Fold:
Amino acid sequence: MHPHTRSTPRRGRRRIVGALSVALLCTAGVTALPAAARTPGPDPSDTPRTARTTGDAPRLPGGLAKTPPMGFNNWNSTHCRAEFNEEMVQGIADLFVAKGLKDAGYRYVNLDDCWALPARDAHGKLVPDPQRFPHGIKAVADYVHAKGLKFGIYTSAGTKTCSSVGFPGALGHESSDAQQFADWGVDYLKYDNCNNQGVDARQRYRTMRDALQATGRPIVYSICEWGENKPWEWASDVGHLWRTTGDIGDNWPSMLAILKQNLPLAPHAGPGHWNDPDMLEVGNGGMTDIEYRSHFSLWSMMSAPLLIGSDLRKASPATFEILDNKDVIALDQDALGKQATVHTSEAGRWTVVKQLANGDRAVALFNETDQPQRITTTATDIGLPRAAGYRLRDLWQHRDYHTAGTVSATVPAHGTTLYRVSADRHWASYPPSVETGTDRTPLVEAGAATVLRSTIGNLGRTPAKDVTVTLQGPQGWRIRATSAATARALPGGGRLTTTWRITAPPGTAPGARPLTLTAGYRAPGGQRITTTLPGTVQVVVPPPAGTAYAAELPWLTSANGWGSVEKNTSVGERAAGDGGPITIGGTRFDRGLGVHAPSEVSFYTGGRCTAFTAQVGIDDEVGDKGSAAFEVWADGERVAASATRTGADPATTLTAGLTGAETVRLVVTDGGDGVDYDHADWADARFSC
Structure:
């Protein structure tokens, strides 16, 4: 749990550590640990080289976590709010059984912070909060166990947990707390990193490992030190999984940044020792269902623990559909335990490949960008032997096709197409794989027309017959094909391209609307196959002539590392409108955008603007902390960028030429050092149109 201003601290990120922690805790009347407890641990150079640099380091005994743990943790949906209680935990256990999640592999029902009282009892024991857990923790664990599930709990490797309330941590109490957990029937421990008093991380986490093993109870041990000390290099004989990043947020930039941090760590993961890029946000509402499918797909490809972070009592059918996708879960739980690796990555188009125990390959075609992208590879490129044909299973459509060797899809913005590919001598028994795609997300001004192109391509060896394609938009819109939308047959490698004219009725309000492309064809065996590609059309408003301030224009999209993008105030990290005056280097600005890295805000300029300018920097509210870099992108090309700015820097002017650009994106990155205190301001941001 990392420090942030004015906001409730978040799980799994440091707030108070080292010397600062001692000073603050002593001020609050908390006694610092004796010097013996602060003795530094072993020097990193003492660790055997293989343990530090390969995935073949020593393992924990006991055979736990042979596949990544699957279950639930309440933090992302409840934090420390009152709804985190005994009734909720029991309700989640009930739903695991009733909704089939237990059958899908979800086993652990885990508590996070705030389950205890702020003080230990007279015997130094932890005391469950009687308001939240009136029957105690053991009773809740017994309830969970009676469902055939397992139970998890949380504490921190420090004097206090990460909550601002200051619940007791386990530092100096490891043996007592571990035994108390074992007596309650705990099966899983998440061990955080807050208020650690500067004690060596390896020493702290090994001490709890030894305490857990001394209880004799098998307990999965989750190290949550945020990747600060590179636990993937030393913790394979300490814990069963380790966090590799800071906290995830329920937004696209956060998920994407964590993905990019965790992907390179594939060599360090395997049965009993997993990289943990943090819990799932699926269903919490900050991303679209397409983005949540990407989140779930990519976490499964990375052999990540799948810990549901949404309140299943309120979950939508779409959320359950994602979480219960057994085809995707099978990748995460594959016995080989190989984390996927990046095969290619270029211009936001990713091909990520996972080797499976039976010799198959899983392939994620991931589109990072905000436009549809065609992403392609081949069966032999991803490691399969040469064959006459291949079975191609679409893991979100739950359908089998065949391909002559090309593995390809036009992937929606922020989407992931997920295939399981195998060399199959019965390939001809499956229908040919037909790729369906569009060239972009159309932008439409009300009352005007725009053009969109769709393409249908046959990737198989056998023909696709009686091909039809339709495009459906909102009721009342005019959508018509201006070129052929049918074909008698598409041979292997054949393509059908159709041009569409889309007109929104006059007066249509700005915003995104659904747009669905549907392709139908007949396979050689006679069966009729229909595939759909969900998408959107965006109704836009042209900018006014003259000077147009960014805070006064509607944006196409916005995504923020923490909290909402703010107009004319700094970011507040949580609800909209909770920021303060925009101030950089002592200068206050009346207009602008307040964001938190990583962040993107996009605008429609429609070719009518010539330039953009802003005063950029880190808001004074974080002092001299924080760092970020500012970028301006026009139609997918970066046209301006600042050097990294810190909280100690004054505002600097950033200008960009925009002539002819249809869209503009304002991007803030974290400066390469994480997102602590990155309250970034686009002060006095304006377009010349």
User: Anything to note?
Assistant: The chain is about 15% helix and 30% strand. The longest strand covers residues 528-540. The mean pLDDT is 90. Residues 570 and 580 are 5 Å apart (CA to CA).
